[in-house]
Amino acid sequence: MSNLGQILLDIQKESDGDLLQETFEVRGKMFVLKLLNDKETNWTFKSIAMNNEVSLALSARLAHLAVGIRSIEGASIEDSFKDKLSALPSDERTKLFANNDNDRSLVIASLFMEFLSNLSPIYIGELYEKWQELSK
Question: Max Cα separation, the chain?
Fold first, then answer.
C-alpha cells in the first residue's frame, strides 16, 4: 500500500471515532443509535418528502432514524433486513440500489425507513429525541 493509502486509512480510523454511538432505552427496548457521516446525511436529504411542512418534518425524522438506528435489542438492522432485500424481485432490487447510490447500507436504510413509516408518530418522536441527544 502506498504511503498516501496508509495515511487515508489512518484518517478514516480516526474519523470513525468521531461518530458517536450510544445505546438508549425506548419503551423497554434497547436501541443503538449513531451520529451520521456526511454520506448518510446526504441520503437523508434525498429521502425527505417536500410535499408540505408536516411531511417535511416527519420524513426528516424517519430518514435520520433509518440510518441512525444501528440495532435493536442486539439485532443489527442490516442483518434484520437482508432477507427482505434478497426476497425482492431482481428488477426492484436493481432499482432500489440505483436510487441509493449502489450502497447496500443505504438500501437497507431505505427498507427500514419504510418499516418506520408505519409506526406511531409518538413512538418515532421518542426515538428521534434520543437520537438528537447524541449531537448535544
Answer: 51
- Residue pLDDT, tens place only, 88-113: 999 999 999 999 889 999 999 999 99
Instruction: Tell me how far apart the alpha carbons of residues 114 and 122 are, in angstroms, rounded to a whole number.
Output: 17
Over the range 90-102, which residues count as b (16 or more CB within 10 Å of their CB) and which as e?
Answer: eeeeeebbeebee
- Selection from 27, 39, 24, 34 nearest residue 65 by Cα: 34
When the pLDDT of each residue in the chain is averaged and rounded to a whole number, the result is 86
- The DSSP code for 12 is H
The 8-class DSSP code of residue 103 comes to: -
Q: What are 23-65's pLDDT values in tens digits?
A: 999 999 999 999 888 899 999 888 876 665 656 667 889 999 9
Helix segments in the chain, DSSP class H? 3-16, 38-46, 53-68, 77-87, 90-99, 104-116, 121-133
CA distances from 108 to 66, 83, 90 (A): 8, 10, 15
Encoded amino acid at 117, one letter:
S
pTM of the model: 0.82
